[in-house]
Every structure is written in structure tokens, then in C-alpha cells.
User: What shape does this take?
Amino acid sequence: MSAFYALIAIRLIIFVAAMLLFGSSLFALYAPWEAMEWSDAWPRTAGLPRGVAIGSGVLLFVSVFGWLIGTAASLNDESNPLLMSEMIRTMLFETGLGRVWVVQLGLTLLLLGGVLTKASSRIILMLAAAALASQAWIGHAAMGTGLQGILRLGTMVIHLLAAGAWLGGLVPLGSVLLAARRAGQEPALVAAGTALRRFSRMGYVAVGLLLLSGSANTSFLVGSAGAFSRAYGSVLVVKLVLATVLLSLALANRVLLSRFDEEERVDLAALSALRRNVLLEQLAGLFVLGAVSVLGLLPPGGS
Assistant: This one.
């Protein structure tokens, strides 16, 4: 049981770190870079403060290592346990999970190297996208075969990347709003309005893809597992409730954004409310990822 909880924590860290690097580096490509002078703390690597970017890369790399050990421990037969080294060797050389892990380790190593060497946001974006998308191969989506298996993996990849674009982008967006509010000067406020509009447009696409791919993934699971188990169904309901909270906050942000005029001048009261909502979205998103981490380890069917 302890291995189960450890794996939940490891998967949560992997999701958070990968989505943060992916969403932030994407944000850095459409955010108004001319406004980055407002704050000395503004991101220098992949749309994040350098320390945060490096920390995310290190956490991702370490967590991928931890996933192999945790999975080997969870698969070990408690009544007749093998040595951990033997279990890890078996996973690496005799299972598909082992091959996927090797690819993931290589991707996270390249990603960490890109962060440490201050690679461009485009390079980090591509590496983070690959690292995040590779998570589809260690979940329920990887259980399908043939054409349906390809479709399940494809929809899960879309789901992961759309979630990363939205949730990962909330962190640099919050930094922009905070820096603009503290600066209180016209260039910073105008740039904040521009960043908000661009994030909002991206968010429409991301949320649409999330809804479509999430519905497809659920349909695939129902087709393969039949009725959900009580545990899986309960956690799924929690995830859906939290996702509804996220969507409600996003809609509230759209209303607040409409209070900015066409010349991109920013209403300071609306800006403060938006910053608060973004923080709430970040918190709700963290709980959603926690639920996703649990779902990935629970069997969908059964009693």
C-alpha cells in the first residue's frame, strides 16, 4: 500500500513538472516579451524564473527514476518477493514499460540539459511536449491494441498536451499579473492585458481539446472495462467536479477580461480579481492532477 501512495506522489510530481515546463515555454512564445523588463524576477528560462525551471527539470528527472523503483516495488509479490534489483532488471528487459521508461529517462535528461544550458523556449517546448506526451504510454490508454489502441494513445496525448498548455501556462500568467499590478505603470499594464488576451485565445483551443479528448478517453474506457469500479468511479467524479470548478473560474475570467477596453488599458480592480482567480485555478488544477494520478493507478473495471 505504501508503494501505491508513493507512486501517486511520483506521478503527480511528473505531471506538474512536465506541464509546468511545457505550458510555460509555450506561454513564452506568445506572451509580450517587450514587457519582461517590469520585474527582475521575470523568467529567463522557458518562461520561468531560472531557479524554478531548473528545479522543475531536476524534479522531473528524479521522479522518472522514482517511478521505476516504485513500480517495481508495487509489482513485487509480497508473499515471495524478489530482490529489488531483480525486479528492476525484469521490468527493464522483459516488459514494454521498461522500454517506455528508457525513452522517458532520455527525454527528461535532454530536457534538463536544455534548461541548464538556457536553450531557447522552442527547444524546451518540444522536449517538454515529448516528455509529457510519453506519459500516455504508461497509463490505461496504452492497453489498447490495433487501430483502437492507436486512437486511445492519440487522444490521451492530445489530452495531456492540452492540459499542459492550459495549467502550465497559468503559472507564468500569474507572474505577469502580479508583476503588472506591482509596477502599476502603463506599459506593464498594457502588456498584462495583451498576455491575458493571448492566453484566453489559447485557452479556448486547449479547453475544447480537453473536453473532446476527455470524452473520447472515457468512451474508450467504458468500451473496454464496462462498468467502472466503485473506487475508480468515485475518483473520476471528484476529478470531473474539480474540472467544472476550473471551467467556471475560466468563464469568470472571461467576464473580467471584458472590462478591459479596446485600447488594452487595464482595470486595476479587474486585474486584482483575475490574479486571484488564476491562483484559484492553479490550486484547482493541482487537485485535478492529483485525481488523475490516482486514476492512472486504479483498475477501471471490477467491483
User: Anything to note?
Assistant: The mean pLDDT is 84. The chain has one domain: 2-295.
